[in-house]
Amino acid sequence: MQVYLNGEFLDQKEAAVSVADRGFVFGDGVYEVTRVVNGKFFQEEEHLVRLDEGLKGLKINLDEKIRDSIPDISRDLIKRNGLTEGEATVYLQVTRGAAFPRTHTFPDPEVPATVYLSSGPFKPHKELHEKGVEVITVPDVRWTRCNLKTVNLLPNTLARQQARDAGANSAVMIRDGVITESPNANIFAAKGGSLYTFPASNYILNGITRRVVIDIANSLNIPIITEPVRQDDLYDLDELFFTGTTTDIQPIVKVDGQNLGKGEPGEIVRSIQKEYNKRLYG
Ligand SMILES: Cc1ncc(COP(=O)(O)O)c(C=O)c1O
Which CATH class is domain 2-121? Predict the structure, then answer.
């Protein structure tokens, strides 16, 4: 597999960043993951806009020419790796660059941002979409700028591992008594025919898939209520599901060992999945 690093396409095994890179030392960077189906990038512009917002949020200056060439680099990468047919993902990471000696303040003079892209084949989690998944609840211990898609993912990876160790697939994170999101997906809850989702704010990543799902719900005349769901109300919900670029639309059927609703995917998630697949594969 070839990757792109700072202006060059390289064999993945040969690509290396400096030990002084602020992504390595501080987790000082942002990333995006985009789905590609038969060479077509899904919601590409939305991912690029969120990348721009992340860079702005962290005050990382990415050269404008490089920024504008990301779609071409992505397509080149997909071709080089023989991924123009079938399913694939493109991973993109931008860090503040390499600066030595290590100081918390930004490099002065400024150094070029590190730009890295990789791609690989992708297999959707069809069995999980069909049967649904089991989750555990965990405290949301992240910082309060979760709207930025930074590479600082330690609370997320720890929560995911905690879920795996408990024999569950993933986690539902709780902050101040309400459900925020999962370590790598947004959450929707259905109750009385309406869909609830945490408001787009600094407490969640405003997922690209979340936005598509809101649009789908509107087209299906399913009322959307952008309000947090209380942890105390979890077991009274009719349905709960995850949304994300690699998660797709994943029903949640069990929380902390207890069945949710009937313990099987409900009608609303099924109708959303159907529409989502049309948009992704159509
Ligand atoms: C914390 C978190 N929330 C939500 C999402 C879903 O976002 P998207 O639909 O843009 O993939 C992700 C995706 O990685 C995530 O890491």
Answer: alpha beta
